[in-house]
């Protein structure tokens, strides 16, 4: 009995301490928020980061509206309704295929050369492609193959730009500020994405699609000018000696490129935690994309009376992305697996809402939560790679992990149609929600993910070590 009284007293004291701790946490919240705002000001005071931040956000103001403008330009170019869908698909595929196929090459180039110069070249390439598109449209000389060729050129440039851009963030700030630098940039970009598509639709109606493409070209030029002033140093000039090479001799030409390419995949395979997370994302991404890009519009058209409700859900997802980025900037998650689980579970919500025929407000709320989860995971991913990978191999890791996630998506798109025809959309959506829920439960069972932690400030850490793990 005495033991029981002591235990109850201990629990009461624990509750009092817990309550006091909660009160202290609430009282400290304004101070923490002010600290985060001061941190943002410190970041923007750093010239390389400020230039990169401004260049990325400015470029995105054009990129956010360009796909809509290009789509309407293609539709206006081909007036036959029976061929419009095929024409638009051809132009979009021309832009997507090189992004997937050349991502590993882009990673090698970004690790080999100065990343700021790679980004200047890719921005100028996209500016040239968009400017040629504008001239062809204004003069009336545009043909479908012209737009497809320009889309192919932009897609090729994007394959080189993405690894260089993601890696350059790590070189524009001190190690202790990498996490907030990544998240602050993501929050700014998400804020542009929230209003970009809607604004693009209005501007197309007012000014026409051609002038939006011209604006995209101008933002690429302005971004290139800003990036040219960063003056970033190369990632690394030191290289391990290739097996079989003579001492003091470096592989050259094609052999050197193949060695660099192989090192990127070796880095991926040699880190079990990275393999597991990439495999998890490669499983989740196609299910989410099929649900969001295909099943959502289909469900809205068949059961919600048209595109309007799904348009509201997409807007809610964009708002969720912004809210998630803001939360990630303030919260600073430490353990990786809770973020992975929460993000995946949140992405299951819209599919489950459609399968269970939830009312529209519930579907909009579910989609907003999916946006929050997606942003939280995205905020974690970049700093985690920056923390655990050598700087001279970071771009290849970014590219290889991205291509592993992108490759299954086209196959998922192709399989979604027959599956919907055979089993019905409701069954497909329910199966997708169940699969994502299962994927949300599994990460803690993998010890290498369960013990993986993100440490935003680790000055002096040797890059590429085994991830910091906790018991």
UniProtKB/TrEMBL annotation:
Keyword Membrane on entry: yes
GO cellular component: plasma membrane
Family matches, as SUPFAM superfamilies: MFS general substrate transporter
Extent of the signal sequence: none
InterPro entries the UniProt entry points to: MFS (IPR011701), MFS_trans_sf (IPR036259)
CDD domains found in the cross-reference section: MFS_MefA_like
Keyword Transmembrane recorded: yes
Key words, A-Z: Cell membrane, Membrane, Transmembrane, Transmembrane helix
UniProt topology in membrane: Multi-pass membrane protein
Transmembrane domains' residue ranges: 20-37, 49-75, 87-106, 118-138, 144-162, 212-231, 273-290, 310-329, 336-356, 362-385, 397-416, 428-446
GO molecular function terms noted in the UniProt entry: transmembrane transporter activity
Pfam families in UniProt: MFS_1
Main location: membrane
Compartments it resides in: Cell membrane
PANTHER family in the cross-refs: INTEGRAL MEMBRANE EFFLUX PROTEIN-RELATED, STAPHYLOFERRIN A TRANSPORTER
Protein name as catalogued: MFS transporter
């Amino acid at each position: 009995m005495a033991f029981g009284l002591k235990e109850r007293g201990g629990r009461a004291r624990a509750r009092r301490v817990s309550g006091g701790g909660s009160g202290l946490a609430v009282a400290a919240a304004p101070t923490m928020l002010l600290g985060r705002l001061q941190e943002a000001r410190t970041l923007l005071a750093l010239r390389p980061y400020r230039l990169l931040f401004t260049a990325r956000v400015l470029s995105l103001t054009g990129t956010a509206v360009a796909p809509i403008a290009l789509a309407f330009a293609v539709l206006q170019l081909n007036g036959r309704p029976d061929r419009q869908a095929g024409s638009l698909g051809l132009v979009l595929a021309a832009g997507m295929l090189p992004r997937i196929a050349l991502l590993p090459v882009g990673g090698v180039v970004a690790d080999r050369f100065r990343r700021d110069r790679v980004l200047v070249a890719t921005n100028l390439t996209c500016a040239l492609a968009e400017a040629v598109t504008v001239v062809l449209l204004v003069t009336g000389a545009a043909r479908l193959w012209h737009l497809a060729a320009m889309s192919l050129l932009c897609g090729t440039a994007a394959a080189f730009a993405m690894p260089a851009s993601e890696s350059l963030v790590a070189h524009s700030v001190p190690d202790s500020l990498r996490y907030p630098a990544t998240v602050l940039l993501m929050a700014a970009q998400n804020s542009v994405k929230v209003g970009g598509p809607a604004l693009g639709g209005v501007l197309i109606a007012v000014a026409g699609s051609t002038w939006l493409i011209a604006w995209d070209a101008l933002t690429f030029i302005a971004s290139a000018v800003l990036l040219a002033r960063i003056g970033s140093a190369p990632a690394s000039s030191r290289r391990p000696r290739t097996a079989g090479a003579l001492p003091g001799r470096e592989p050259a030409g094609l052999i050197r490129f193949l060695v660099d390419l192989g090192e990127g995949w070796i880095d991926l395979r040699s880190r079990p935690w990275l393999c597991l997370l990439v495999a998890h994302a490669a499983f989740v991404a196609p299910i989410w994309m099929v649900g969001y890009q295909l099943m959502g519009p289909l469900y809205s058209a068949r059961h919600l009376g048209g595109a309007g409700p799904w348009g509201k859900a997409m807007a809610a997802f964009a708002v969720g992305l912004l809210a998630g980025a803001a939360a990630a900037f303030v919260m600073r998650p430490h353990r990786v697996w809770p973020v992975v689980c929460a993000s995946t579970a949140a992405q299951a919500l819209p599919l489950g809402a459609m399968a269970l025929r939830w009312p529209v407000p519930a579907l909009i709320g579910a989609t907003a939560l999916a946006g929050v989860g997606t942003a939280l995971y995205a905020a974690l991913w970049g700093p985690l790679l920056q923390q655990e990978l050598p700087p001279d191999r970071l771009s290849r890791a970014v590219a290889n992990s991205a291509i592993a996630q992108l490759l299954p998506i086209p196959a998922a798109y192709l399989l979604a149609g027959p599956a919907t025809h055979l089993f019905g959309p409701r069954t497909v959506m329910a199966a997708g929600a169940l699969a994502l829920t299962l994927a949300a439960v599994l990460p803690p069972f993998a010890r290498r993910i369960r013990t993986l932690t993100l440490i935003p400030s680790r000055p002096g850490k040797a890059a590429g070590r085994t991830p910091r793990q906790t018991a």
